[in-house]
Write a structure and sequence with these properties.
single chain, 136 residues, mainly beta, 8-stranded mixed β-sheet, 1 helix, globular
Length: 136
């Protein structure tokens, strides 16, 4: 079963290439409930030598369904984080870090994540939230 099989690359990168954050809420203002999602502005600096990700998160102003009442509820303790990672790699939280893709508390300081490349090599990354801006 080995003849004429295409040689596929073995991916060896275990990097975080971007971080994104969003806020979600249930909108019950109509007959049917719906999920509201607001992307948060993220200024992200990635250091691939030190394996660090520094983020400044800014809550945008109100618009459409993202009212002042809903915006007032956005804190570091109730947002979702998402990481873009190297091709064919996987990421897992370490030492109580928030699970990415779930509503979580990012207010507790620095968090570590392990990224495993397809070839099995790993890197430990540190996520730091440097600032959370919610101007009036």
């Amino acid at each position: 079963m080995t003849s004429d099989l295409e040689e596929l690359p073995t991916f060896d990168e275990a990097n975080i290439t971007n971080m994104r954050f969003e806020y979600r809420w249930i909108d019950n203002s109509n007959e049917f409930s719906k999920l509201g999602i607001q992307a948060l502005d993220s200024d992200v600096v990635i250091d691939t030598i030190a394996n660090t990700v520094n983020c400044i998160i800014t809550v945008p102003g109100t618009k459409d369904d993202f009212t002042e009442e809903i915006r007032a509820g956005v804190t570091l303790s109730n947002i979702l984080g998402f990481a873009d990672i190297s091709t064919a790699s996987i990421i897992k939280p370490m030492s109580g870090a928030p699970v990415l893709g779930n509503v979580a508390d990012y207010s507790a300081g620095n968090f570590q994540y392990e990224v495993m490349a397809a070839d099995g090599s790993t890197k430990v990354w540190t996520l730091m939230i440097d600032d959370f801006i919610k101007e009036d």
